[in-house]
Amino acid sequence: MEKVSKKSKMNKLPDSIIIEIFSYLSSKELVTKLALVCKTWRCLSYDPSLWREIQTDGFSSINIQDSTVLRFINYAKTVKTLSLRGCYQISNKVLRGVSINGSRLQNLNLENCFKITDRGIITLARACQNLRTVNTLNTLVTEHGLCYLLQENKHLIELTSAPHTVTLKTIQILSTNCKHLEYLHVEQNEFTPNYKSNKLNQNKLVSLTNQMIELLASNCLKLQVLILRYPITSIDDHALWRIGSQCKRIECVEIGQKTHTAPLSDNGVIALCTRSTNLLRLDLKETFITDFTLQVIAECCQSLEHLEFGNTATVSDLGVMSIMNHCHNLDSFSLRAGVHSRLTDLSIFSIAQSPCARNLIKLSMKDWNITDFGLSVIAKNLPHLLYLSLEQCLLLTNTGLEHSLKFFHSIHSLELTGTKCITNDKELISFARLLPDSFQSVVLQARSLITLPNSSVPCDSITEDGCRRFSDILPECEIIFV
């Protein structure tokens, strides 16, 4: 390959122009490609102006060591964004390096950096007091370290962390010190099973309470996104009323997991939706609502893109029709009906006839009383559907499923737990042959899997041999038993 020489037209350009061209390249391209072309390009590729963002996207982040990141930081005196997401081997040494050279740091993402602890976070917080976004999910950071960071960073806009770090004490500091907060995402840690450490058992049973919601709603008036997935939820309708009354900019409310109080009812959801007409996402896992609530949502929140409720046994087809007649931007819709479901094929017809039918990419219909005909209507009228949950839809048959699969051209994932579909090897193989090559996962009932030799099990079972034959047909598809 011909080397780049001084006679090259590119090298005749001023350094400032070349650096401007290089600014469109990623960190990986600067290190692994440009720096190897010639000495001139190597020197220019290390210009501090090119290293205002250090992101490990594109690298093999699992193998990135402290020394690699520290080398970047040494010539990144003006770094504003540091994203080390998925860098399992990174330790507190990197944060100490940032504290020396990165006082202008604004965005920090440490998700899945399993070795990062309070010591590193505190060291960083002492030097970097201009942080805007922070993500400490799946790290060893605790309440102590996060509280210290929040005290030192009054301009924080976005925070993502785990329940054991975002406690009542943390919320008190957050609501007092970080008035500009717009985005709060609390998610349970999910550490990789390949990383063995007794320190990783961080998911303590921290409960989300009314007091925590009230502190946030009363003080963080700029909140737009509120995602609170605690292991235990102890809030009532008053909490939703608080959010609706005081967070005028709220666009996303997601509250999930188990509840130790009465489920959220019509009163709370209506109080939220009548006051938060800009809602784009509403996801409440523990509810006890009626058609009236869905009618109010349909009238007040017509810009909704994602709607999900759990335990909606009293909701009927009329409620679904109201949503479909007004919320035309929906791309994700989920109603978990319960054992006494009143949702039938009529709901399916209203979904198929709604303008949102062409937008829907996710549809979850747990416990709906839909038939094979209803399933075929979904298949023919939702062309971009990627995920479909038919959990506990007991009226469906293999015949109906096989017929509908011919029309699912985009489907990636299908959940069939609790149905009468795909209960033996023959049905599993027939199912595999009808799926598109892009199919990614199917969720089946765990009791269907038998690990004994085929000759030792009844014909109405799925065996390991059947799973292997399925994988031969669709090697990229995963079978999940729950």
Automatic annotation (TrEMBL):
GO cellular component terms given for this protein: SCF ubiquitin ligase complex
Matching InterPro entries: F-box-like_dom_sf, F-box_dom, Leu-rich_rpt_Cys-con_subtyp, LRR_dom_sf
Record Pfam families: F-box-like (PF12937)
Gene3D superfamilies given in the database record: Ribonuclease Inhibitor (3.80.10.10)
GO biological process, one term: SCF-dependent proteasomal ubiquitin-dependent protein catabolic process
This protein's UniProt keywords: Ubl conjugation pathway
Record-annotated F-box domain positions: 7-54
rRNA-binding listed as a keyword: no
Keyword Transferase in annotation: no
UniProt superkingdom: Eukaryota
Name listed for the protein in its UniProt record: F-box domain-containing protein
